[in-house]
Amino acid sequence: MLKIWRNNQLSMWRPNIWDVLAFIIVIAVFVILAYGATEMATPYKIGQQLPIHLDPKYLPYYALRSVLRLLIAMVFSLLFTFTVATLAAKNKHAERIILPAIDILQSVPILGFLSITVVVFIAIFPNSLLGPEFAAIFVIFTSQVWNIALGFYQSLKTVPFELKEASNIFHLSAWQRFWRVEVPFAVPSLVWNMMLSMSASWFFVVASEAITVNNQSILLPGIGSYIAVAIQHADKVAVGYSILTMLIVILLYDQLLFRPLVQWSERFKFESNIDDKKTSSLFVSLLNRAHLIQYVGQFFGLFFNLLANLNIGHKKEVLIQEEKKRTQGRQYVVWVWYGLLFLVCAIAVVELADFIFKVISLHTALHVMLLGVYTGIRVFVLIILCSLVWVPVGVLIGINPKLTAIIQPIAQFLASFPANLLFPVVVIAIIKFHLNVEIWTTPLMILGTQWYILFNVIAGASTLPKELYLATKNFNVKGWLWWKRFALPGVFPYFVTGAMTAAGGAWNASIVAEVVSWGSHTLRATGLGAYIATYTASGNFPKIALGIAVMCLFVLVLNRLIWQPLYRLAEKRYQLY
């Protein structure tokens, strides 16, 4: 028996053909990404125009450059999430600042970021393409990070009571509780939000790779700039090639990255699925058959386990005792902090108002406020319509893992599909049928952001407790009662996160949806997005600042009146655990 066991162990350590294939795939991916990274650091001078060819043979290279930017932005988004979002969930004073700030920042138009960041990064990396590259990565980062951060924050705030009690019983330190309890609970939702943010960021790839600021154009090699040039030349064939390339790219990183992550995240679900069918992929099947790769994975798993088990930070009981001792003194510090913060904000508002109103009249400012009302009405109506459509669909998909496995890549491709490619169709239809621009350009605002609602609802429905689902079956709960008592309360916290992010994204998307073009035809709707887009292209910074300030004001008011009360309601009333 001992001899048989030794032979089995030796055979498991012995490489096989699947190890060779897995090794080739992994090395090929790293080599390709490294090549793309070296291309990002080529020499570049201000005003230099990089040629973008519409020949389809260049598309694989352009796809590599775009995907590399998306992946780098994703890494920074995760770093931001694990620090800032965690701070917001752990500290109520930080929460009062971070949540409104995220809500405002996700609504600030990317052209507003570009008008500042391009100049800054070019100054940091003079005579190098890294300047425009990092500006583009920063813009993509802003299109990814808010959804991931809000989803992770929501997960940390809804950790089940049983898990909290278990961490107290085992006397886990703050570090251990975070990595052994809270992060594993948040992993399923985090992976879904990563997929969504990766997909949704394709919507902004065109604006980030084809930069037009202050009458200057910068085209970075990528699918986004390829699409921009194709639209400019009204080349339908090139647009078709770009769609095909995107489909191939999305299928590749779905198989190589997200399918393995989804399958890995299923082990962290607090409740077993309603149907225990697991997600699978060809690449995961290959890794499961490769012996040495599995041992490498076990080695890294052991390393991360040791890291997560470090006894860093105080235990909860110690924190409670220290909290009681320092409450009075710290309360004084908190009020001083809030006073200083209010003072800084007041000075910033006064300086911004002084800067704006030196060159802009009060009548113009009131007109921009009215434009904000128009755009706000569009956002409000679109969020309601999308919620009525995607909440039921997301619940039905989320409670059926078999359906999830089929629809996930389809939804991921549709979410990744740049709505900019549909703009020419809308322009042609509006011109041909003499349609109202104010109405028929409005849906374009939500095309790239509606998926936040769908993906978050799917993530919430997939975590619905199996016991409650079976209880509804046993008591024959059906129809509206089933939705009212089980499904809608169960997904409500996830829906709030998705709707909040979709609303912020819709404000952002208004800059490209309210001004659409195809060839020589350009249509403009009345709204704040069109106002910002127009003056960003001409480089009128006072009017850009006024437009962004008005948009931030609207978003801040909506945050205080709608989203924060809904978050509190989700946290206190609609927790299933």
Task: Kindly describe this structure.
By secondary structure, the chain is an all-alpha fold. It folds into 2 domains: 16-270 and 278-313 and 360-572, MetI-like (MetI-like fold, Orthogonal Bundle), CATH 1.10.3720.10; 314-347. The protein has 23 helices and 4 strands. The chain has helices spanning 2-13, 17-39, 59-90, 92-105, 110-124, 130-157, 161-169, 174-200, 205-209, 223-232, 236-265, 282-289, 291-308, 316-357, 362-398, 401-416, 423-433, 437-440, 451-461, 466-474, 479-513, 528-538, 541-572; strands spanning 210-213, 216-219, 515-518, 521-524. It has a two-stranded antiparallel sheet. Strands 3-4 form a two-stranded antiparallel ribbon. A hairpin with a 2-residue loop joins β1 (210-213) and β2. α5 crosses α6 (130-157) and α15 packs parallel to α19.
- Biggest beta sheet summary: 2 strands, antiparallel
Radius of gyration: 25 Å
Oligomer: single chain
Q: Which fold name fills CATH's third level, the topology of the largest domain?
A: MetI-like fold
- CATH class designation of the largest domain: Mainly Alpha
Count of extended strands:
4
Task: Give the gist of this structure.
This protein is mostly helical and 577 residues long. Helices cover 76% and strands 3% of the residues.
Sequence-ordered SSE layout with sheet pairings:
Blueprint: H1 2-13, H2 17-39, H3 59-90, H4 92-105, H5 110-124, H6 130-157, H7 161-169, H8 174-200, H9 205-209, E1 210-213, E2 216-219, H10 223-232, H11 236-265, H12 282-289, H13 291-308, H14 316-357, H15 362-398, H16 401-416, H17 423-433, H18 437-440, H19 451-461, H20 466-474, H21 479-513, E3 515-518, E4 521-524, H22 528-538, H23 541-572
Antiparallel strand pairs: 1-2, 3-4
Helix pairs in contact: 2-3, 2-12, 3-4, 3-6, 3-11, 4-23, 5-6, 6-8, 6-21, 8-11, 8-16, 8-19, 10-11, 11-16, 14-23, 15-19, 15-21, 15-23, 19-21, 21-22, 21-23, 22-23
